[in-house]
Structures are given as structure tokens and as C-alpha cells.
Design brief:
- GO terms for molecular function: arogenate dehydrogenase (NADP+) activity; NAD+ binding; prephenate dehydrogenase (NAD+) activity; prephenate dehydrogenase (NADP+) activity.
- Keywords: Coiled coil, Oxidoreductase.
- Pfam families: PDH_N, TYRAAT1_C.
- The protein has 271 residues and is of the alpha/beta class.
- It has 10 helices and 8 strands.
- An 8-stranded mixed β-sheet has the order 3-2-1-4-5-6-7-8, with helices on both faces.
Length: 271
């Protein structure tokens, strides 16, 4: 058990969507002494058995197990379908719902619309994953927004999971997050995808800058295209940033063409 586990009370956490990211978060939560259960479209019974997690194929049975926290680890594109299909009447008591999506206004509005009025809502974005967080979470950013919280103790205990691992804790609104993420995360993914379309590869004379671009391309294409499209479809600020990127490329191109024309004109005069 990690030394940080003593700084927060043990929680019973149910994970919805036990894919790569859900598994990644689960390992640290188990190490901290929290009790985990899971449900997912894919049957992860064997993996959960190895990890000491009870797995439920039936969502109704999952919801009826009296959890402190339900952690939504679905993809951005599938969140609405998953949440709307959950038989929420099976819940035993008011529960804290937490999402970890890379966009924030979308889950906020959906959860406020669909969840029972007595369910608390915490929207979060761990700004790291299995690759960047493989050696621990210290100094990695964890963003959160207390959308609707009545049970402060449970909410604080959940947030403490990340604080006790040394994360940089950033509380901001879902709108602020999506504005910032459109300028940073979405643009990063977009540049990586563009480089992949160009099929850039290492050469014998790579500069450090080009090596960084190749690494960016490889990192971004390592993420699912569903994640990339979700960053665009469900972040209303991403469209403007894509237009800004297009405009910037056009301005750079125009400047280069203008300089080339001036240089060629000067050469003709000199000759």
C-alpha cells in the first residue's frame, strides 16, 4: 500500500468503462487502499479477477452495489449513450458521479440533465495517461470542477486520491478548461495528425526540433481517432482554433511566396 493512502478515507469506487485509462487509474486507487468494482462493454472478468476487482456484466447489479463514487471512464463519443442507458433507479443512495473526459462542458451538461437530482457531480480531467504517468503522477496536472456537490467529505476524499500522489491540482470551470484545451490539447493532436498525413519519418540528418516533431506524430497517432474527433465534436471552442490554424498556415504561406517573388524580381533586375 502506498504511503499516501493514509491521507484519505477508503472509498468504494465503481468504474464504468474499464479500458486502458480506467485500468490505469484503477492500479493507483487499489494501491491506495480503495475498493473497486467495474463494468464495461467488453468482458474484463479475468483481468479484474487478477487485480482484485469485482466485475459486473449486468449494469443494474453494478449500480445496486452501494458505491461512494461512480467513475465514468468511457470515450467522449460514447458517454451520452452509456449514461442514458444506465438504469439509474437501481442506485441504492445518492452517489458522487465523476467523469475523466478530455472535454468538460459536454459531460457537465449531460450529467446535469440525466442524473438524479440528489447525485453529486464532479467533472475532472487528469492531464496525463498510461505513458506520461507510468512512473508516478507527481507534478502532473489534475483539473476539477465541483459542479454539484453536497457531500463534501466524499468529494474531498476522491480529489485527495490525486493530491496525495503529488499532482498539480487545478480547480477551474468546465468552460475555462475547454477554452484552454482547445488551444493546447486539440491543437497538439491536430498537428500530430497532420504530420501523420504527411508521413514524416526520421532522416540521417534530423535536427532536435524535427526529432520532437516525429515524436509528437508517433504519440498522437498512438491515441485513438475517437479521442481526437471527440476533442473536436464536443469542444465548442475547437472549431475556432482549427480555423485559426488554417489562417495562420495561409499567412505563413503568403509571406513565403511574397518573399520568393521579391527575391526573384531582384535577381531579374540584377541580371
Amino acid at each position: 500500500m502506498s504511503t499516501s493512502s493514509s491521507s484519505s478515507q477508503s472509498l468504494k469506487i465503481g468504474i464504468v468503462g474499464f479500458g486502458t485509462f480506467g485500468q490505469f487509474l484503477a492500479k493507483t486507487m487499489i494501491n491506495q487502499g480503495h475498493t473497486l468494482i467495474a463494468t464495461s462493454r467488453t468482458d474484463y472478468s479475468e483481468l479484474c479477477l487478477q487485480m482484485g476487482i469485482q466485475f459486473f456484466r449486468d449494469v443494474s447489479e453494478f449500480l445496486a452495489t452501494d458505491m461512494d463514487v461512480i467513475l465514468l471512464c468511457t470515450s467522449i463519443l460514447s458517454l451520452s449513450k452509456v449514461v442514458r442507458s444506465m438504469p439509474l433507479t437501481s442506485l441504492k443512495r445518492p452517489t458522487l458521479f465523476v467523469d475523466v473526459l478530455s472535454v468538460k462542458e459536454h459531460p457537465r451538461e449531460l450529467l446535469l440533465q440525466v442524473l438524479p437530482e440528489d447525485s453529486d457531480i464532479l467533472c475532472t480531467h487528469p492531464m496525463f495517461g498510461p505513458v506520461s504517468g507510468k512512473n508516478g503522477w507527481k507534478d502532473l496536472t489534475f483539473m476539477y470542477d465541483k459542479v454539484r456537490i453536497r457531500d463534501e467529505a466524499t468529494c474531498s476524499n476522491f480529489i485527495q486520491i490525486f493530491a496525495s500522489e503529488g499532482c498539480k491540482m487545478v480547480e477551474m470551470s468546465c468552460e475555462e478548461h475547454d477554452k484552454a484545451a482547445a488551444k493546447s490539447q486539440f491543437i497538439t493532436h491536430t498537428i500530430g495528425r497532420i504530420l501523420a498525413e504527411m508521413d514524416i519519418k526520421s532522416t540521417p540528418i534530423d535536427t532536435k526540433g524535427f526529432q520532437a516533431l516525429v515524436q509528437l506524430k508517433e504519440t498522437m497517432v498512438g491515441n485513438s481517432f475517437d479521442l481526437f474527433s471527440g476533442l473536436f465534436v464536443h469542444n465548442r471552442f475547437a472549431r475556432q482554433e482549427l480555423e485559426n490554424l488554417e489562417d495562420a498556415l495561409e499567412k505563413v504561406k503568403e509571406t513565403l511566396v511574397q518573399m520568393m517573388n521579391e527575391e526573384q524580381g531582384q535577381e531579374r533586375k540584377d541580371s
